[in-house]
Design brief:
single chain, 173 residues, alpha+beta, Multidrug-efflux Transporter Regulator, Chain: A, Domain 2, two-stranded antiparallel sheet, 6 helices, rod-shaped
């Protein structure tokens, strides 16, 4: 490892005077509170996690079980961390609280976007409805106008006397 803040399980065991297998059990049971990464078959623990390991040890010494230790660590505000893969497919350890805050921020942005989109869709629907109503109104006016013209033509045709076929045929020019 290039960063000297990361130590192997055996190095941590020597530093805090806790057996290696106990450290491994802590990693299995409480890894969300420890800054741990695994490279091949070895676990590496960050220097920041030494105090957490000592707190876990003291909680077990008080006779607490796994669930009680987890509750105590959470109650003390020890941050929870998870390991996720980034865009380059590298494993990255992140704190859950930070990630949740980032997710919450993005969710709020998405909600604002959704509200704006809904408003735009409502405005567009209103515009379309008004346009259709105007079009329908103009169409009805056109139809009425044409009907009135035809009615006037029929009235003119009805008021003029009709000539017989023969009178039209033999009419003087």
């Amino acid at each position: 490892m290039t960063d000297n803040k990361w130590m192997t399980v055996s190095e941590v065991s020597e530093k805090v005077n806790i057996p290696v297998e106990t450290i491994r059990r802590y990693i299995r049971s409480h890894s969300v509170h420890l800054k741990v990464k695994k490279l091949h078959k070895k676990y590496y623990i960050h220097d920041e996690s030494m105090t957490v390991i000592e707190q876990i040890r003291s909680l077990y010494a008080e006779g607490k079980n796994i669930e009680e230790v987890e509750e105590s660590l959470t109650a003390k505000g020890i941050p929870m961390t998870i390991t996720v893969k980034n865009d380059n497919d590298d494993s990255v350890t992140v704190q859950v609280v930070d990630e949740l805050q980032e997710i919450k921020k993005k969710l709020e942005q998405q909600e604002k976007f959704n509200h704006e989109l809904i408003k735009r869709l409502d405005d567009r629907d209103k515009y379309i409805k008004e346009s259709l109503e105007q079009r329908d109104q103009r169409l009805l006016e056109s139809i009425r106008s044409i009907q009135e013209q035809k009615q006037a033509q029929l009235e003119v045709a009805a008021s003029t006397p009709k000539k017989s076929f023969f009178s039209r045929l033999f009419a003087k020019k």
